[in-house]
């Protein structure tokens, strides 16, 4: 499987931050959506499926169907892409953990806790069953617990797409412990097949174990063709008989004897919870989970400021605005303004550098005189203005003298 490095781009939009989990068919990475600025999860498929046209066609249809499903008990799917050698789903990022990790931390659950987990799981599964979908891989690893304690079902369509691909027709696709008999003997799959797997999950929640085992994975898988799932109360004390009956009906070897779909299983579970007057329960968030460990490291926001590779960014820009030069900025819907003439930048005079004091014995060169200010006035206009001003001042002075005390007086007659 091709490994992606931190900072790599998917579809020139999703920036790889760090891996969260790896499986046989895919690797899940925490990513940043550089366009919307939010954290998401990217499930990148194994390279063996990349060039399988049957897988790609099936998976694309399933991904579109998944994106149309929206419910608090389902992991939201945001995007799907087949880019070069990468096939991936972009999903809601769950920062809590898986039901598998919770079981590893706390062990078997009491009936009231198991009922709450199964109610959320079957609620999400019933939404998909109503749309005609079959999950094919119900197991604790695909039941997630978010940081707000909400239980969500994930991974619709992946196993179905792989099962129908040309490279998987000779294999049993799914997780051995939770396979329905139809998945083992090749019978047609129905929504009752998901009911069987959900019944195995309920058995494990109550007992902490799975019902079958074998020396090899194949022997483990074939055990369900000849044996019934035992009563949970036979493995652990404290399991009510009504829960044994729920598990027995859900895991009947004959699909016609099971609950028809997740909605019917959910209705029976609610009846049992009311009959036993089970208390409410808040599902705890796993503390030692891969998602929790990844969340302990803040996502690098610098990735949002790093543009995708230049050729890809330019190609994307040309697709949006084919008539405009690459690198230009445009507000969609705005009327372009006329271009203004270029403005010459005004530069400030250079600041003289600070010089260290010299030795007094050294001769100090005289500091050059500062340059004379250059006037932008016309010299002739200035001269004429000064002359007129001087004449006006002189005229005012003479007039003042004349009409004041400067008038000539008459001389008296001389006496001889």
TrEMBL record:
Compositional bias per record (Low complexity), positions renumbered to this chain: 353-366
Gene3D superfamilies per record: Phosphorylase Kinase, domain 1 (3.30.200.20), Transferase(Phosphotransferase) domain 1 (1.10.510.10)
MF GO annotations: ATP binding; protein serine/threonine kinase activity
Region (Disordered): 334-375
CDD domains given in the database record: STKc_PknB_like
Record-linked PROSITE patterns: PROTEIN_KINASE_DOM, PROTEIN_KINASE_ST
SUPFAM superfamilies in alphabetical order: Protein kinase-like (PK-like) (SSF56112)
Organism domain of life: Bacteria
A matching Pfam family: Pkinase
Segments forming domain Protein kinase: 14-269
EC category: transferase
Entry EC no(s): 2.7.11.1
Transmembrane intervals: 379-403
Ranges of biased composition (kind: Pro residues): 338-352
Keywords linked to the UniProt accession: ATP-binding, Kinase, Membrane, Nucleotide-binding, Serine/threonine-protein kinase, Transferase, Transmembrane, Transmembrane helix
Name by which UniProt lists this protein: non-specific serine/threonine protein kinase
Organism: Corynebacterium qintianiae
Phylogenetic classification of the source organism: Bacteria, Bacillati, Actinomycetota, Actinomycetes, Mycobacteriales
């Amino acid at each position: 499987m091709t490994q992606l490095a931190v900072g790599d781009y998917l579809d020139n939009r999703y920036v790889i931050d760090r891996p969260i989990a790896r499986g046989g068919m895919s690797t899940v990475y925490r990513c940043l959506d550089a366009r919307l600025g939010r954290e998401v999860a990217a499930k990148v498929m194994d390279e063996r499926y990349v060039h399988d046209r049957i897988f790609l066609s099936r998976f694309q249809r399933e991904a579109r169907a998944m994106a149309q499903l929206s419910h608090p008990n389902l992991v939201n799917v945001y995007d799907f892409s087949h880019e070069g050698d990468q096939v991936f789903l972009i999903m809601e990022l769950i920062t809590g953990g898986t039901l598998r990790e919770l079981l590893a931390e706390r062990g078997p659950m009491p009936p009231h806790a198991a009922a709450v987990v199964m109610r959320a799981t079957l609620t999400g599964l019933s939404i998909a069953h109503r749309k005609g979908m079959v999950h094919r891989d119900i197991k604790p690893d695909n039941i997630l617990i978010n940081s707000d304690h909400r239980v969500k079902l994930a991974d619709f369509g992946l196993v179905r797409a792989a099962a129908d691909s040309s490279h998987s027709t000779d294999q049993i696709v799914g997780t051995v412990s939770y396979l329905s008999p139809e998945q083992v003997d090749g019978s047609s799959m129905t929504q009752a097949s998901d009911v069987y797997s959900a019944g195995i999950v309920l058995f494990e929640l109550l007992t902490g174990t799975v019902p079958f085992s074998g020396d090899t994975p194949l022997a483990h898988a074939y055990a369900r063709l000849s044996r019934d799932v035992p009563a949970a109360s036979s493995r652990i004390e404290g399991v009510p008989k009504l829960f044994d009956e729920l598990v027995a009906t859900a895991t009947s070897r004959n699909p016609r004897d099971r609950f028809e779909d997740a909605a019917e299983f959910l209705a029976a579970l609610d009846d049992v919870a009311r009959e036993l007057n089970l208390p409410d329960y808040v599902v705890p968030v796993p503390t030692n989970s891969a998602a929790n460990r990844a969340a302990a490291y803040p996502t690098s926001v610098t990735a949002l400021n790093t543009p995708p590779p230049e050729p890809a960014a330019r190609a994307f820009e040309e697709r949006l605005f084919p008539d405009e030069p690459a690198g230009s900025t445009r507000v969609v819907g705005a009327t372009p303004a006329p271009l203004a003439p270029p403005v010459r930048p005004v530069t400030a005079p250079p600041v003289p550098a600070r010089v260290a004091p010299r030795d007094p014995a050294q001769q100090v060169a005289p500091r050059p005189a500062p340059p004379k200010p250059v006037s932008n006035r016309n010299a002739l206009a200035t001269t004429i203005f000064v002359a007129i001003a001087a004449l006006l001042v002189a005229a005012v002075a003479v007039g003042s003298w004349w009409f004041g005390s400067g008038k000539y007086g008459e001389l008296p007659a001389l006496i001889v």
